[in-house]
Amino acid sequence: MSLRIVPPSGSPRTLAVAQLVNSLGDGAYYVCSALYFARIVGLSPGQIGLGLTIAWAIGSIAGVPLGHLADRRGPRSTAVLLALATASAVASFLFARSFVPFLLSACCYATAQCGLAAARQALLAGLVAKEERTETLAYLQSTLNAGLAVGAATGGVALHFGTREAYLSVFAMDAAAFILCALILLRLPAVTSAAPKAANSPKLAVLRDRPYALVSFLNMVMLLRMPLISLAIPLWIVERTSAPGWTVSALLVLNTGAVMLFQVRTAAAVTDLPSATRTVWRGGAVMLASCAVFALTAVTDSPAWSAVAVLIAGAVLQVAGEMMQSAGAWQISFDLAPAGRQGQYQGFFGTGVSVARMLGPLLLTTLIVGWGVPGWLLLGALFLAAGLAMGPAVRWAEKSRTDVSVVVPSGT
Q: Cα dihedral sign for 112, 115, 121, 127?
Protein backbone atom coordinates (compact mmCIF):
# COMPACT_ATOMS: atom_id res chain seq x y z
CA MET A 1 0.00 0.00 0.00
CA SER A 2 1.63 3.23 -1.14
CA LEU A 3 1.93 6.29 1.05
CA ARG A 4 -0.39 9.14 0.07
CA ILE A 5 1.07 12.61 0.48
CA VAL A 6 -0.17 14.73 -2.44
CA PRO A 7 -3.88 15.66 -2.21
CA PRO A 8 -6.28 15.30 -5.15
CA SER A 9 -6.32 18.05 -7.75
CA GLY A 10 -8.70 20.96 -7.45
CA SER A 11 -9.52 22.86 -4.27
CA PRO A 12 -7.81 20.36 -1.89
CA ARG A 13 -4.51 20.73 -3.75
CA THR A 14 -4.79 24.52 -3.86
CA LEU A 15 -5.46 24.59 -0.12
CA ALA A 16 -2.45 22.33 0.40
CA VAL A 17 -0.19 24.61 -1.66
CA ALA A 18 -1.32 27.60 0.41
CA GLN A 19 -0.65 25.58 3.58
CA LEU A 20 2.80 24.59 2.34
CA VAL A 21 3.79 28.15 1.50
CA ASN A 22 2.91 29.71 4.83
CA SER A 23 4.25 26.73 6.82
CA LEU A 24 7.64 27.20 5.15
CA GLY A 25 7.74 30.71 6.56
CA ASP A 26 6.34 29.65 9.92
CA GLY A 27 8.92 26.89 10.32
CA ALA A 28 11.74 29.38 10.03
CA TYR A 29 9.90 31.85 12.29
CA TYR A 30 9.31 29.30 15.07
CA VAL A 31 12.98 28.35 15.17
CA CYS A 32 14.29 31.92 15.26
CA SER A 33 11.68 34.13 16.91
CA ALA A 34 12.44 33.52 20.60
CA LEU A 35 16.18 33.96 20.12
CA TYR A 36 15.61 37.09 18.04
CA PHE A 37 13.47 38.69 20.72
CA ALA A 38 16.00 37.75 23.43
CA ARG A 39 19.32 38.41 21.67
CA ILE A 40 18.50 41.20 19.23
CA VAL A 41 15.55 43.03 20.80
CA GLY A 42 16.88 42.44 24.32
CA LEU A 43 13.70 41.12 25.99
CA SER A 44 13.96 38.85 29.01
CA PRO A 45 12.52 35.31 28.91
CA GLY A 46 9.84 36.45 31.34
CA GLN A 47 8.80 39.31 29.05
CA ILE A 48 8.68 37.02 26.03
CA GLY A 49 6.59 34.45 27.87
CA LEU A 50 4.20 37.04 29.29
CA GLY A 51 3.79 38.77 25.93
CA LEU A 52 3.03 35.55 24.08
CA THR A 53 0.62 34.37 26.79
CA ILE A 54 -1.34 37.63 26.58
CA ALA A 55 -1.25 37.54 22.77
CA TRP A 56 -2.61 34.00 22.46
CA ALA A 57 -5.26 34.69 25.08
CA ILE A 58 -6.52 37.61 22.98
CA GLY A 59 -6.22 35.55 19.81
CA SER A 60 -8.29 32.71 21.24
CA ILE A 61 -11.07 35.16 22.12
CA ALA A 62 -10.94 36.82 18.71
CA GLY A 63 -11.19 33.53 16.83
CA VAL A 64 -14.96 33.17 17.26
CA PRO A 65 -16.03 36.65 16.02
CA LEU A 66 -13.55 36.45 13.15
CA GLY A 67 -14.96 33.03 12.26
CA HIS A 68 -18.43 34.58 12.38
CA LEU A 69 -17.17 37.27 10.00
CA ALA A 70 -16.12 34.49 7.61
CA ASP A 71 -19.64 33.04 7.80
CA ARG A 72 -21.27 36.37 7.03
CA ARG A 73 -18.82 37.90 4.53
CA GLY A 74 -17.48 34.77 2.90
CA PRO A 75 -14.57 32.58 4.09
CA ARG A 76 -12.35 33.14 1.03
CA SER A 77 -12.23 36.93 1.24
CA THR A 78 -11.92 36.79 5.03
CA ALA A 79 -9.05 34.28 4.82
CA VAL A 80 -7.25 36.43 2.26
CA LEU A 81 -7.58 39.55 4.41
CA LEU A 82 -6.41 37.71 7.52
CA ALA A 83 -3.44 36.22 5.67
CA LEU A 84 -2.44 39.74 4.68
CA ALA A 85 -3.02 40.90 8.26
CA THR A 86 -0.73 38.10 9.49
CA ALA A 87 1.94 39.21 7.02
CA SER A 88 1.67 42.76 8.34
CA ALA A 89 1.91 41.56 11.94
CA VAL A 90 5.04 39.53 11.19
CA ALA A 91 6.59 42.51 9.41
CA SER A 92 5.82 44.73 12.40
CA PHE A 93 8.14 42.59 14.54
CA LEU A 94 11.00 44.08 12.50
CA PHE A 95 10.36 47.44 14.15
CA ALA A 96 9.87 46.24 17.75
CA ARG A 97 12.63 47.54 19.99
CA SER A 98 11.01 47.17 23.41
CA PHE A 99 8.35 45.19 25.26
CA VAL A 100 5.27 47.29 24.43
CA PRO A 101 5.76 47.27 20.62
CA PHE A 102 6.57 43.56 20.84
CA LEU A 103 3.35 42.92 22.80
CA LEU A 104 1.23 44.88 20.30
CA SER A 105 2.76 43.02 17.35
CA ALA A 106 2.33 39.67 19.09
CA CYS A 107 -1.35 40.42 19.81
CA CYS A 108 -1.96 41.33 16.16
CA TYR A 109 -0.12 38.20 15.03
CA ALA A 110 -2.04 35.82 17.32
CA THR A 111 -5.40 37.42 16.50
CA ALA A 112 -4.80 37.21 12.75
CA GLN A 113 -3.54 33.62 13.03
CA CYS A 114 -6.55 32.42 15.06
CA GLY A 115 -8.97 34.15 12.72
CA LEU A 116 -7.17 32.81 9.66
CA ALA A 117 -7.38 29.25 10.99
CA ALA A 118 -11.16 29.57 11.49
CA ALA A 119 -11.70 31.17 8.07
CA ARG A 120 -9.66 28.50 6.30
CA GLN A 121 -11.62 25.73 8.02
CA ALA A 122 -14.87 27.38 6.92
CA LEU A 123 -13.45 27.71 3.40
CA LEU A 124 -12.56 24.03 3.34
CA ALA A 125 -16.04 23.12 4.57
CA GLY A 126 -17.58 25.11 1.71
CA LEU A 127 -15.31 23.72 -1.00
CA VAL A 128 -14.92 20.06 -0.03
CA ALA A 129 -17.69 17.47 0.22
CA LYS A 130 -18.59 16.46 3.78
CA GLU A 131 -17.32 12.91 3.39
CA GLU A 132 -13.93 14.16 2.12
CA ARG A 133 -13.16 16.83 4.73
CA THR A 134 -11.24 14.69 7.21
CA GLU A 135 -9.11 13.17 4.46
CA THR A 136 -8.39 16.63 3.05
CA LEU A 137 -7.39 17.91 6.49
CA ALA A 138 -5.06 14.92 6.83
CA TYR A 139 -3.37 15.92 3.59
CA LEU A 140 -3.10 19.50 4.87
CA GLN A 141 -1.56 18.30 8.14
CA SER A 142 1.01 16.27 6.21
CA THR A 143 1.77 19.30 4.08
CA LEU A 144 2.05 21.47 7.18
CA ASN A 145 4.63 19.17 8.74
CA ALA A 146 6.66 18.99 5.55
CA GLY A 147 6.71 22.78 5.26
CA LEU A 148 7.60 23.27 8.91
CA ALA A 149 10.51 20.84 8.59
CA VAL A 150 11.97 22.60 5.56
CA GLY A 151 11.31 26.01 7.09
CA ALA A 152 13.00 24.98 10.33
CA ALA A 153 16.08 23.94 8.36
CA THR A 154 16.09 27.38 6.71
CA GLY A 155 15.78 29.01 10.11
CA GLY A 156 18.72 26.91 11.27
CA VAL A 157 20.89 28.64 8.68
CA ALA A 158 19.90 32.02 10.14
CA LEU A 159 20.72 30.76 13.63
CA HIS A 160 24.14 29.64 12.40
CA PHE A 161 25.01 33.18 11.34
CA GLY A 162 23.26 34.73 14.33
CA THR A 163 23.33 38.27 12.95
CA ARG A 164 20.54 40.81 13.06
CA GLU A 165 20.27 40.70 9.29
CA ALA A 166 19.94 36.90 9.30
CA TYR A 167 17.09 37.04 11.81
CA LEU A 168 15.34 39.85 9.95
CA SER A 169 15.54 37.89 6.70
CA VAL A 170 13.54 35.10 8.39
CA PHE A 171 10.79 37.53 9.46
CA ALA A 172 10.71 39.01 5.96
CA MET A 173 10.47 35.49 4.52
CA ASP A 174 7.53 34.62 6.79
CA ALA A 175 5.70 37.86 5.88
CA ALA A 176 6.25 37.20 2.18
CA ALA A 177 4.99 33.64 2.61
CA PHE A 178 1.68 34.86 4.02
CA ILE A 179 1.30 37.35 1.16
CA LEU A 180 1.86 34.52 -1.33
CA CYS A 181 -0.60 32.38 0.66
CA ALA A 182 -3.24 35.12 0.26
CA LEU A 183 -2.66 35.21 -3.51
CA ILE A 184 -3.04 31.43 -3.74
CA LEU A 185 -6.28 31.50 -1.73
CA LEU A 186 -7.64 34.05 -4.21
CA ARG A 187 -7.50 31.32 -6.87
CA LEU A 188 -10.17 29.35 -5.02
CA PRO A 189 -13.85 29.87 -5.85
CA ALA A 190 -15.87 32.10 -3.54
CA VAL A 191 -18.04 30.35 -0.96
CA THR A 192 -21.39 31.66 0.26
CA SER A 193 -23.15 30.80 3.49
CA ALA A 194 -24.85 27.41 3.24
CA ALA A 195 -27.79 28.49 5.39
CA PRO A 196 -29.46 31.85 6.05
CA LYS A 197 -29.33 33.26 9.56
CA ALA A 198 -32.60 32.84 11.44
CA ALA A 199 -34.18 36.11 12.51
CA ASN A 200 -34.28 35.23 16.22
CA SER A 201 -30.97 33.38 16.48
CA PRO A 202 -27.96 34.93 18.25
CA LYS A 203 -25.03 36.14 16.18
CA LEU A 204 -22.53 33.96 18.04
CA ALA A 205 -24.70 30.88 18.57
CA VAL A 206 -21.69 28.72 19.40
CA LEU A 207 -21.27 30.54 22.71
CA ARG A 208 -24.65 29.11 23.83
CA ASP A 209 -24.03 25.60 22.52
CA ARG A 210 -23.13 23.75 25.73
CA PRO A 211 -22.68 20.29 24.15
CA TYR A 212 -20.25 21.71 21.59
CA ALA A 213 -18.45 23.58 24.38
CA LEU A 214 -17.96 20.29 26.24
CA VAL A 215 -16.65 18.58 23.10
CA SER A 216 -14.26 21.50 22.55
CA PHE A 217 -13.06 21.32 26.17
CA LEU A 218 -12.32 17.59 25.91
CA ASN A 219 -10.43 18.23 22.69
CA MET A 220 -8.47 21.00 24.46
CA VAL A 221 -7.42 18.52 27.18
CA MET A 222 -6.13 16.13 24.54
CA LEU A 223 -4.30 18.98 22.79
CA LEU A 224 -2.03 19.23 25.83
CA ARG A 225 0.00 16.75 23.79
CA MET A 226 1.18 19.69 21.65
CA PRO A 227 3.91 21.00 24.00
CA LEU A 228 5.04 17.44 24.77
CA ILE A 229 7.39 16.86 21.87
CA SER A 230 8.61 20.47 21.61
CA LEU A 231 9.10 21.32 25.30
CA ALA A 232 8.32 18.76 27.99
CA ILE A 233 10.06 15.74 26.46
CA PRO A 234 13.27 17.67 25.63
CA LEU A 235 13.43 18.93 29.23
CA TRP A 236 12.72 15.42 30.52
CA ILE A 237 15.49 13.95 28.37
CA VAL A 238 18.07 16.46 29.54
CA GLU A 239 17.16 16.49 33.24
CA ARG A 240 15.78 13.03 34.03
CA THR A 241 17.33 10.48 31.63
CA SER A 242 20.74 9.18 30.62
CA ALA A 243 20.00 9.66 26.90
CA PRO A 244 22.34 11.94 24.90
CA GLY A 245 21.16 15.42 23.88
CA TRP A 246 20.87 14.53 20.19
CA THR A 247 17.90 12.33 21.10
CA VAL A 248 15.77 15.50 21.28
CA SER A 249 16.37 16.23 17.60
CA ALA A 250 15.84 12.59 16.62
CA LEU A 251 12.42 12.47 18.28
CA LEU A 252 11.36 15.74 16.62
CA VAL A 253 12.35 14.35 13.21
CA LEU A 254 10.50 11.10 13.96
CA ASN A 255 7.33 12.98 14.93
CA THR A 256 7.37 15.29 11.92
CA GLY A 257 8.16 12.53 9.45
CA ALA A 258 5.53 10.16 10.82
CA VAL A 259 2.75 12.75 10.56
CA MET A 260 3.87 13.68 7.06
CA LEU A 261 3.82 10.05 5.89
CA PHE A 262 1.01 8.40 7.86
CA GLN A 263 -1.60 11.04 8.80
CA VAL A 264 -3.65 10.44 5.64
CA ARG A 265 -3.67 6.68 6.20
CA THR A 266 -4.70 7.14 9.84
CA ALA A 267 -7.54 9.46 8.85
CA ALA A 268 -8.91 6.92 6.35
CA ALA A 269 -10.53 5.03 9.25
CA VAL A 270 -12.63 8.09 10.17
CA THR A 271 -15.76 8.50 8.05
CA ASP A 272 -18.51 9.60 10.48
CA LEU A 273 -19.12 10.56 14.11
CA PRO A 274 -19.11 7.00 15.54
CA SER A 275 -15.81 6.15 13.87
CA ALA A 276 -14.43 9.55 14.93
CA THR A 277 -15.25 9.02 18.61
CA ARG A 278 -13.79 5.49 18.49
CA THR A 279 -10.59 6.84 16.99
CA VAL A 280 -10.35 9.60 19.60
CA TRP A 281 -10.67 7.26 22.60
CA ARG A 282 -8.22 4.83 21.05
CA GLY A 283 -5.86 7.76 20.57
CA GLY A 284 -6.28 8.60 24.26
CA ALA A 285 -5.44 5.02 25.21
CA VAL A 286 -2.33 5.05 23.01
CA MET A 287 -1.21 8.36 24.52
CA LEU A 288 -1.64 6.85 28.00
CA ALA A 289 0.62 4.00 26.90
CA SER A 290 3.18 6.49 25.55
CA CYS A 291 3.22 8.37 28.87
CA ALA A 292 3.82 5.10 30.74
CA VAL A 293 6.70 4.23 28.41
CA PHE A 294 8.29 7.68 28.79
CA ALA A 295 8.03 7.29 32.57
CA LEU A 296 10.20 4.14 32.35
CA THR A 297 13.18 6.27 31.32
CA ALA A 298 13.32 7.71 34.84
CA VAL A 299 15.44 4.67 35.79
CA THR A 300 18.69 6.57 36.22
CA ASP A 301 21.09 3.61 36.14
CA SER A 302 19.98 2.39 32.70
CA PRO A 303 22.57 2.69 29.91
CA ALA A 304 22.23 5.48 27.35
CA TRP A 305 21.33 3.13 24.48
CA SER A 306 18.52 1.62 26.54
CA ALA A 307 17.11 5.04 27.40
CA VAL A 308 17.21 6.04 23.72
CA ALA A 309 15.36 2.86 22.70
CA VAL A 310 12.63 3.43 25.29
CA LEU A 311 12.29 7.09 24.30
CA ILE A 312 11.88 6.12 20.64
CA ALA A 313 9.21 3.57 21.59
CA GLY A 314 7.37 6.23 23.59
CA ALA A 315 7.65 8.72 20.74
CA VAL A 316 6.21 6.20 18.25
CA LEU A 317 3.21 5.64 20.52
CA GLN A 318 2.85 9.39 21.11
CA VAL A 319 2.73 10.29 17.42
CA ALA A 320 0.31 7.41 16.71
CA GLY A 321 -2.03 8.73 19.40
CA GLU A 322 -1.59 12.26 18.09
CA MET A 323 -2.63 11.27 14.57
CA MET A 324 -5.67 9.37 15.85
CA GLN A 325 -6.80 12.27 18.03
CA SER A 326 -6.36 14.76 15.20
CA ALA A 327 -8.31 12.71 12.66
CA GLY A 328 -11.23 12.10 15.01
CA ALA A 329 -11.35 15.72 16.21
CA TRP A 330 -11.50 17.08 12.65
CA GLN A 331 -14.52 14.95 11.81
CA ILE A 332 -16.28 15.83 15.07
CA SER A 333 -15.69 19.57 14.76
CA PHE A 334 -17.15 19.73 11.25
CA ASP A 335 -20.06 17.31 11.66
CA LEU A 336 -21.38 19.02 14.80
CA ALA A 337 -21.17 22.54 13.35
CA PRO A 338 -24.47 23.81 11.85
CA ALA A 339 -24.52 24.68 8.17
CA GLY A 340 -23.66 28.30 7.54
CA ARG A 341 -21.84 28.64 10.89
CA GLN A 342 -18.68 26.68 10.24
CA GLY A 343 -16.52 29.78 10.71
CA GLN A 344 -17.61 30.65 14.25
CA TYR A 345 -17.78 26.99 15.30
CA GLN A 346 -14.31 26.25 13.92
CA GLY A 347 -13.06 29.42 15.60
CA PHE A 348 -14.44 28.20 18.95
CA PHE A 349 -13.10 24.66 18.49
CA GLY A 350 -9.72 26.11 17.56
CA THR A 351 -9.39 27.92 20.88
CA GLY A 352 -8.11 24.62 22.24
CA VAL A 353 -4.89 25.15 20.30
CA SER A 354 -4.42 28.62 21.79
CA VAL A 355 -5.15 27.43 25.32
CA ALA A 356 -2.72 24.53 24.89
CA ARG A 357 -0.07 27.03 23.81
CA MET A 358 -0.82 29.26 26.81
CA LEU A 359 -1.22 26.75 29.63
CA GLY A 360 0.48 23.65 28.27
CA PRO A 361 4.11 24.64 28.88
CA LEU A 362 3.58 25.53 32.55
CA LEU A 363 1.29 22.56 33.25
CA LEU A 364 3.45 19.97 31.51
CA THR A 365 6.75 21.15 32.97
CA THR A 366 5.16 20.99 36.44
CA LEU A 367 3.67 17.54 35.89
CA ILE A 368 6.55 15.91 34.06
CA VAL A 369 9.77 17.62 35.08
CA GLY A 370 8.55 18.48 38.57
CA TRP A 371 6.55 15.37 39.55
CA GLY A 372 8.35 12.78 37.44
CA VAL A 373 6.73 9.35 37.05
CA PRO A 374 3.45 10.23 38.88
CA GLY A 375 3.13 13.28 36.62
CA TRP A 376 3.53 11.15 33.49
CA LEU A 377 0.86 8.71 34.68
CA LEU A 378 -1.53 11.52 35.64
CA LEU A 379 -1.10 13.12 32.22
CA GLY A 380 -1.76 9.79 30.52
CA ALA A 381 -4.88 9.30 32.63
CA LEU A 382 -6.12 12.74 31.54
CA PHE A 383 -5.68 11.78 27.90
CA LEU A 384 -7.57 8.52 28.37
CA ALA A 385 -10.38 10.13 30.39
CA ALA A 386 -10.89 12.87 27.79
CA GLY A 387 -10.89 10.30 24.99
CA LEU A 388 -13.45 8.10 26.73
CA ALA A 389 -15.68 11.08 27.57
CA MET A 390 -15.72 12.24 23.95
CA GLY A 391 -18.27 9.59 22.92
CA PRO A 392 -21.00 10.58 25.43
CA ALA A 393 -20.29 14.28 24.75
CA VAL A 394 -20.70 13.84 21.01
CA ARG A 395 -23.92 11.87 21.48
CA TRP A 396 -25.26 14.68 23.68
CA ALA A 397 -24.40 17.19 20.96
CA GLU A 398 -26.10 15.04 18.32
CA LYS A 399 -29.23 14.72 20.44
CA SER A 400 -29.39 18.47 21.08
CA ARG A 401 -29.37 19.08 17.32
CA THR A 402 -32.12 16.49 16.79
CA ASP A 403 -34.27 18.09 19.47
CA VAL A 404 -33.87 21.49 17.87
CA SER A 405 -34.83 20.14 14.48
CA VAL A 406 -38.03 18.72 15.98
CA VAL A 407 -39.05 21.90 17.78
CA VAL A 408 -38.40 24.36 14.96
CA PRO A 409 -40.98 23.99 12.17
CA SER A 410 -39.73 23.81 8.63
CA GLY A 411 -40.81 25.95 5.73
CA THR A 412 -41.39 29.08 7.77
A: negative
